[in-house]
Design goal:
- The protein is of the alpha+beta class and 270 residues long.
- The chain folds into 2 domains: 2-205, outer membrane lipoprotein receptor (LolB), chain A (Clam); 229-262, no CATH class.
- Helices cover 23% and strands 36% of the residues.
- The protein has helices spanning 2-14, 57-70, 76-81, 204-207, 216-228, 230-238, 251-254, and strands spanning 18-27, 38-47, 51-56, 93-98, 103-110, 113-120, 126-134, 137-146, 149-156, 174-180, 185-194, 212-213, 242-243, 246-247.
- Strand 4 (93-98) and strand 5 form a beta hairpin.
């Protein structure tokens, strides 16, 4: 069955259709608590096998709702009055990749700000000899290192798309599964198929020109500052305030996100 699909896909990719992949991420935000395991769904939309766009499903939905609000199709009263219009995500990041130039454009929300920056694809893959069947696809093993973690990937040669979740791409086939060697961040394909819907090519806030250009290093430093002391960042921006009646300068407030000590990127992307 997969052989017939691969033959169909070969001609489909050659005629440049669009595809969408749904991945599930299982991750451990607290390296000191093995029981704190979280999950989130992500979407990879591939346009004409030339560009792709990646974000969490929660980000996609929330950003689409903001588009409806901007165009007046959803009123502020409707939005505030019905919780079905509000979506959350732990990953406020949107990644646009050019499969031709091998560069990624990243839009990221951090605290009060929205940033835009570029990173080249410098991943160095080592091809393995091992094979396995994952999510119904015959896969080949490959390994790499990225942002302070070592990763094992499984890609499907029968799906000739050199892409994958997040900033993992460049293999001769779609990445079906990839995880770091400690199994703290593991992406697994849940669904793949042709896609005829609208592809989101940038976040809604980017279309309103509210994005700040910055370097990857500045973004990483600011992201770490917010991750380690979110209320301190707010206090430095807006002045003293309270959270649930407690001053944000209180040590217990500053440490209220101590569990968030294990980000996907442990160091600056090189």
């Amino acid at each position: 069955m997969h052989l017939l699909f691969a033959i169909f896909l070969f001609f489909a990719v050659d005629s440049t259709p669009n595809f969408q992949v749904r991945y599930k991420l299982v991750y451990q935000p607290d390296s000191t608590n093995l029981n704190n395991i979280k999950e989130e769904a992500f979407l990879l939309s591939i346009k004409e096998n030339k560009q792709s766009y990646f974000c969490s499903e929660g980000f996609w939905k929330a950003d689409s709702i903001q588009g409806l609000r901007r165009t007046g199709l959803l009123s502020a009263a409707e939005y505030m009055g019905d919780p079905k219009y509000r979506f959350r995500t732990a990953f406020d990041k949107f990644i646009a990749k050019s499969l031709e130039t091998r560069e990624s454009r990243i839009f990221e929300k951090i605290s009060f700000d929205q940033f835009e920056f570029s990173v080249p694809n410098h991943l160095k893959w080592e091809m393995g000899m091992e094979e396995d069947t994952i999510a119904g696809y015959a896969c080949v093993k490959a390994t790499t290192s990225f942002a302070g973690r070592d990763y094992v990937a499984w890609f499907a040669p029968e799906l000739p798309i050199p892409d994958g979740p997040y900033l993992f791409w460049g293999l001769p086939g779609l990445i079906v599964k990839i995880g770091d060697t400690r199994n703290q961040y593991v992406f697994t394909l849940e669904r793949f198929g042709a896609y005829t819907g609208v592809i989101k090519e940038w976040p809604e806030y980017a279309s309103r020109r509210k994005v700040k250009e910055a370097s990857a290093q500045k973004i990483y430093e600011y992201r770490e500052e917010v991750r380690k002391d979110p209320f301190g960042v707010i206090e430095r921006r807006l002045g003293p305030s309270t959270f649930n009646g407690v001053p944000t300068s209180d040590p217990s407030i500053k440490n209220s996100k101590a569990w968030n000590n294990n980000p996907l990127e442990l160091k600056l992307i090189e």
